[in-house]
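step 3/5: co-fold with magnesium ion
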Amino acid sequence: MKIICIGRNYAAHAKELRNDLPTEPVIFMKPKSALLLPGKPAYYPEFTKDLQYECELVIKISKNGKFIQEKFAHKYYSEITLGIDFTARDVQREQQKKGLPWEIAKAFDGSAAAGTFVTLDESMDINNLGFELKLNGATVQKGDTRDMIFNVNNIISYVSKFFTLNTGDLIYTGTPEGVGPVAINDTLEGYLQGNKIMEVKIQ
Ligand code: MG
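step 4/5: write tokens
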């Protein structure tokens, strides 16, 4: 499986990191070794002094596909969760300054935390899902998928022009504003439409 991530997909977040708004989805990937499943400890990497959380809606691909038309994209997923796109922000800034790829700042072991997957039902509109991240009990990020620059079906269609999507692949759809640092012993909790579906403890 592969983990595909979308960057700068919420205008307010792009602004807080002083990035321009993208005209096409910004894509990067994480390897399978980046996946941090529920209940596994998240270790603060020794190569960064600025590990940051980015809470994102995560889509699990349920069917193989390539060149998926946007109007059919909804047939390629049925489960979603919340995840954390952990980012070594200091390393990312250094890489960006040098014009180098992001992988060491974004794709390291444990950098793609995922919560418990839930099945989409009729009551859930993929383009109108509210979610929230709490850091040690205090809300630090609040997002809604209606504020995405590129919506989920848009993303699937775009990504599948370049990469065959396979069953089990995950798509991290970008983070809303409010990203920030974590420290050892912090607890992150993700809520989708008010229901807690993710918890990560930093060690
Ligand atoms: Mg992100």
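step 5/5: annotate
The longest strand covers residues 77-85.
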